[in-house]
Amino acid sequence: MKNKKPDNPRLLELIRFLQKMSRENDAKIWNAIANVLSKPRSMRVSINLSRISRHSEKGEVVAVPGKVLGSGTINHPVTVAAFSFSPAAREKIRRVKGKCLTFSELVKKNPRGSNVRIVV
Question: pTM of the entire structure?
């Protein structure tokens, strides 16, 4: 039987970091994101830009516990934090003056996780 846990060292380090920050800052959002990231690869999230555009507003901070893909369009600037981005998604977000962040950068900017929307 196949191992169902993630074996990517970068991902495991991120999960431990998010759980630690959740305990230290009493912010349940980081633990929720860590739980989604710890799922098997087949159950992890892949979100297209069109979904982020539909479920966010101008200037909002969005967290994607998985990969952001470049399908669709985005027409307003948002700050997106994700485990990984496709090159097309990164380019389209930057083209509309948005920002692409890692979860570590987002936690350092906003340790309490206030006003962050999780898109799954």
Answer: 0.91
